[in-house]
Specification:
The protein has 92 residues and is mainly alpha-helical. The chain has one domain. Helix content is 77%, strand content 4%. The protein is built from three helices and two strands, in the order αββαα. It has a two-stranded antiparallel sheet with strand order 1-2. Strand 1 and strand 2 form a beta hairpin. Helix 2 runs antiparallel to helix 3.
Length: 92
């Protein structure tokens, strides 16, 4: 292949308000990933502790389902905020 095609001119990449175009996307990715990881890990640890203390697997399942619900709501909120930010930029 031609070496010129492999080199990307950094000036030709689109910028948004002086920032690189990929920064908002990576921030969105980090936020949504954290909404997946942290509530589920906390639910797993808390559910395991409570179910061992009480001796009921049902409580473990309830904690896992609550963690999943928190995850879904958090991701929904992040998507809504991200779309609102895109709408503001389009309206300018």
């Amino acid at each position: 292949m031609d070496n010129e095609n492999n080199n990307i001119n950094k000036d030709s990449l689109p910028k948004q308000g002086g920032e690189a175009w990929w920064k908002p996307v990576m921030i969105f990715y980090a936020k949504t990933t954290s909404w997946i990881i942290f509530p589920m890990i906390l639910a797993l640890l808390a559910g395991r502790y409570v179910s061992r203390s009480v001796g009921s697997q049902v409580l473990f399942f309830i904690f896992i389902m609550a963690g999943f619900l928190v995850t879904c709501l958090g991701i929904y909120r992040e998507i809504k905020d991200y779309k609102k930010g895109l709408d503001k930029k389009d309206g300018k």
